[in-house]
Amino acid sequence: MIGLESGMLVQHASLGLGKVVAVEPTAVHVVFVTQGARVATKLRLPMALPFLGPPASSNAWLSGLSGFTLDAKTGRYGRTTTWLSHPDAVALFTEAFPLAFEDPTYLAPEKGRGDRAARWRRAHAAFVAAFGDGQGERLLATGDVAGLVERTIKIGRIVSPIVREAGKTPFEAGRNEPTLARGFFAALFDLLSADAPDRARFEALAASVAALAPGGATPESRWPLVTLLPFVARPDVHVLLRPHFVCDGAQRLGLELLYEAAPNWATYASLLDATRQLLAKLRPLGARDHVDVEAFMYVVLANPIRPKPQARAKPSARARARASGEDEETDSGTEDDLEHDAEPEL
Fold first, then answer.
1. Are residues 115 and 214 in the same domain?
2. Which of 119, 172, 138 is nearest to 295 (CA)?
3. Are the CB atoms for 127 and 233 separated by under 8 Å?
4. Do 188 and 41 fall into the same domain?
5. 207, 190, 189: which is closest to 263 by C-alpha?
6. pLDDT in tens, 220-247
7. Biggest alpha carbon–alpha carbon distance for the chain
């Protein structure tokens, strides 16, 4: 049995890893990785104590999860102020681009609000021109690591205005560490040669980035380095993982992300599953691949939720009388109960 405190991670016997949001005398509110992050699950005390123990693993995304507030009517803790339903997210996107992914502004070549997707497309074209049709493998076979590095840096410059991490690549170090750079490109081309991402190839690329990354770099900072070039090369298959951007998107859009700080296959696979599902929902709007998913998330997350205007009710005759001082009597009525879509108490 453990002492429960708000903010701590716990392991439930059946619900898995979770984070304590609040502790009350008769209940503990926990948000679980496996159940999304909109509403915390309410566990009755002391009945729930035998099922809770120390966390079996760490989870940086869950540790950083915040923004839960108490709904006085339901007695539940949720993130309703930041949560976005899919229709709400689409509404925000089409507010910026009325014709969605077919909007001329969205498709415009690197100007205005369409700059993000256009830059990703230009970077993809540059990657194909530099490494396509086996060019990358041939450069690697001849030992032209310098040529590989220079071409990669040029691609990074295309997207550096929209991805700050692109300017922090370790490839410059590859000039002085050709053996490590060679290992990186070998792993990269091997990953891209597969029809679909797989664990062994992904983990080999992650290991090569860890070896090439500058000293003092945090494990989390390696995520963009591992996923940037695969995403640029094959946006139909791969996805970019920028930790703060993706974690915020997962929390607000309800994407299931098994996030860990260091690059790993479980996290990447969970993101791929989530973005594939999102892409399927966006295809009717004209979305083609993960470039469109990334642009959609960027536009949606950059726009705050605007509360819908509510019509002001006309004051009753009694209210007008009280306002004028003609009636000092007070009402003792109760508000109507509201229905809430909450998870069941356990």
1. yes
2. 119
3. yes
4. no
5. 207
6. 889 999 999 999 999 999 999 998 889 8
7. 95
